[in-house]
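STRUCTURE:
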């Protein structure tokens, strides 16, 4: 189960403040202008609509804005119909604070202005002193402005941190693949030099010894024969070494995947790679890019704090499983990122599956080579 973070705790605190402000009406200390059940219904509508607007991240943006508008309108009715409830205008302050998560700043400022007017109307019903009324309305208006600007600043900072984290992941992946390419080029250079120099020399040695074997030198014949076999063995070993250098993986898969997820701000990435997993250069590059995309998507959409990546041998395939502890998705919609992952696995003859039931889970398989 996902642990509650600061955002969730702050939202819970705001909810408790609103319930506390409404409690005088609920317990019968203050009588509203409408029947108590109607007033309670308006209050519950306000709270449910507000929660849908800010907590329903899987809901379409248009529906979230409609829910927020419903919460604001119902909140006005709650405040106006219970002007003697004391701290009830705090409900509108909380609604204004929710605005940056749903609407743009200009629209949020309009909500603040209208909330201030509604608070002034409600207070005007029980207080005829103009100066005191104006000061109280201005006080709540300033509180709303301060709250909206603070939440907006925090939200922009979080957005910048997410962008920085995505850039960090991209840079880590690029560094890993670049290092692998450099090692590949160096190994190819060494293999060519071994083949051109040592291999050529040993071939010449073999030909010379072969010629010596056919000369009439009975006393040296056995030694020449053994030297000939040794020279051929050395030549075979050199060619085998060259072939291994050319075919071996350029990048350590486990270290490469850990490097992609290392020190990602706001997300703890755990990578486990089985000891029996052997991936060639093409597969390694595809797996690195896939994990890069998974980490980026997790930062952008999941709201997760932990991501676990496991690569293991599964029969004749190499299986990659990535699971986060985020909010998941009732309906998985393939965007550019998920389509890119599917295309990479398909290009290697594999396939990928998604599951958003509990967190978000990606399972991809590629044939072993």
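SEQUENCE:
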């Amino acid at each position: 189960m996902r642990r509650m973070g600061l955002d969730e705790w702050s939202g819970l605190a705001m909810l408790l403040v609103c319930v506390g402000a409404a409690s005088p009406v609920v317990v019968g200390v203050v009588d509203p202008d409408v029947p108590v059940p109607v007033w309670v219904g308006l209050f519950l509508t306000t709270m449910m609509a507000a929660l849908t607007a800010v907590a329903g991240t899987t809901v379409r943006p248009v529906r979230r804005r409609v829910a927020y508008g419903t919460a604001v309108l119902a909140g006005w009715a709650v405040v106006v119909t219970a002007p003697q409830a004391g701290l009830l205008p705090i409900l509108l302050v909380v609604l204004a604070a929710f605005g940056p998560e749903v609407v743009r700043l200009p629209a949020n400022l309009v909500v603040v202005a209208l909330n201030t007017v509604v608070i002034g109307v409600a207070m005007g019903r029980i207080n005829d002193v103009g100066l005191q009324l104006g000061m109280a309305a201005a006080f709540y208006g300033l509180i709303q402005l301060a709250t909206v600007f603070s939440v907006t600043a925090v939200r922009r900072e979080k957005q910048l941190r997410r962008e920085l984290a995505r850039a960090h992941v991209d840079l880590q992946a690029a560094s890993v693949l670049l290092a692998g390419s450099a090692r590949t080029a160096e190994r190819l250079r060494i293999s060519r030099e071994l083949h051109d120099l040592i291999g050529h020399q040993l071939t010449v040695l073999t030909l010379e010894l072969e010629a010596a074997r056919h000369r009439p030198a009975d006393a040296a014949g056995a030694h020449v024969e053994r030297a000939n076999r040794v020279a051929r063995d050395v030549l075979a070993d050199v060619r085998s070494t060259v072939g291994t250098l050319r075919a071996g993986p350029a990048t350590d898969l486990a270290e490469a995947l850990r490097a992609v997820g290392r020190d990602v701000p706001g997300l703890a990435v755990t990578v486990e790679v089985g000891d029996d997993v052997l991936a060639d250069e093409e597969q390694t590059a595809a797996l690195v890019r896939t994990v890069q995309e998974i980490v980026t998507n997790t930062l952008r959409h999941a709201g997760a704090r932990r991501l676990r990546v496991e690569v293991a041998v599964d029969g004749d395939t190499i299986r990659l499983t990535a699971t986060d502890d985020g909010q998941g998705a009732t309906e998985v919609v393939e965007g550019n990122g998920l389509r890119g992952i599917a295309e990479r696995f398909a290009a290697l003859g594999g396939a990928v599956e998604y599951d958003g039931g509990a967190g978000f889970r990606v399972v991809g398989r590629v044939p072993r080579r």
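REMARK: Strands lie at 268-273, 306-314, 317-324, 351-355, 361-367.
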